[in-house]
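forwarding from the other thread:

> can someone predict this with adenosine-5'-diphosphate?

sure thing
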Amino acid sequence: MPSNNLVLSVNAGSSSLKICLYRAVPTGDDSEPVELKLTSSISNISAPPAKFSFKVQGGSSKNEDSPAIHDHASAFAHFLECLNQEADIDSTKIRHVCHRVVHGGDYADPVVINDEAYKHIERLSDLAPLHNGHALAVIKTCLSQLPNAKSIAFFDTAFHRSIPPHISSYAIDQKIAKQRGLKKYGFHGLSYSFILRSVSRFLQKPAAALNLIVLHLGSGASACCIQHGQSLDTSMGLTPLNGLPGATRSGTIDPSLIFHYTNKAGRMSHDKGAAVHLHVTQAEHILNTQAGWKALAGTTDFAAITQRREGDAAARLAFDLVADRVLDFVGAYHLKLGGVVDALVFSGGIGERSIELRAHIGEKVACLGYAPVDEARNAGVDATEGVVVEVGTLEGHRMLVCRTDEQLEMARQCTLGSI
Ligand SMILES: Nc1ncnc2c1ncn2[C@@H]1O[C@H](COP(=O)(O)OP(=O)(O)O)[C@@H](O)[C@H]1O
Ligand SMILES: CC(=O)OP(=O)(O)O
Ligand SMILES: [Mg+2]
């Protein structure tokens, strides 16, 4: 292996940036083609002061508030400085930079960023107003600061291209739908792809034979119905606003609500928070940034809501409402899979950490034949090693937790793929 075999994976979330650096290694059969060298995460970018963490595997680590970080570009610049100063890594040795791009439209595969790909991602920014612009800001920095590296975009939408037309279409004029690309694209695809592979390994069953209901519950939350190893349906739609509520996103509402909420709904929003100029209405802005459990209970932190819910009606409403919407999708997907489900999988910051939400959902789905959640296993997930942890007892449809890793998914696809 040459010495400059470093792969950087960058995941630009709505208010966070998660970065991992890997070294490509020779693979045997089932082993990972990359080895983790360091991780960094910058959160609270849109609610300063941003929190910066940097951890070298088997070495030093750093956790601090970084008031100088005010957007994704400055967050990434801060990371590059640290890479040089703290980890003594020469960034010219980075050969590939993998960027998670949430909306890829009809792109089926990852693409090396060139002018055309950049413009394509830019054109889709209005359909992922909390995401694509941030990814582009980081891509721009990489193109100028890391000229020796190839920047590659990996799309959240690609995994859902298997969704059949009667599920991905909306019941609207199909001529207009086709002209304007108005259909369900679905998101969190890199996460679902990672989870499918990990669960397949855990259950020792080929991915193509697996039927799963997967919940990716983070500040953006979605559910996915996987049949024979392919996405059959997912809860997000044309944009990541649809489906489950998120930290600041409404999830599905009656579309008419928009016009009763404010009489300025159709006017353009002048929010300057985004990295690229967005053309979104005030309604889209409100439903993306001033809704979700933040609007219901005053915080984006679902753990705080969970703790407060016994004595706080607003927190109780937020918790119960999220749980209710999750059940809508689990029930529908169970039916779409004809009741043949290998496992219900929890993932994302909330799915992986909320003992309470897993217990609650577990209790509700028991009537469908899911293995009851084992109290001790469920409470012990954090202390249990492994990518996949079983929280249900063995009989019935399995109940699993998967520590999803979009950065690793990209690095893996990059190293094994033909790019
Ligand atoms: N112990 C916990 N219980 C419930 N929710 C938690 C817990 N720890 C973290 N979270 C939630 O996980 C969210 C982050 O999830 P993550 O998947 O990393 O989000 P994203 O990638 O969408 O920014 C936090 O905003 C917080 O609400
Ligand atoms: C698609 C999406 O909502 O992503 P995230 O959860 O990272 O915000
Ligand atoms: Mg995320």
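Residues 206-406 form a domain with the Nucleotidyltransferase; domain 5 fold (CATH 3.30.420.40). thats all i got for now
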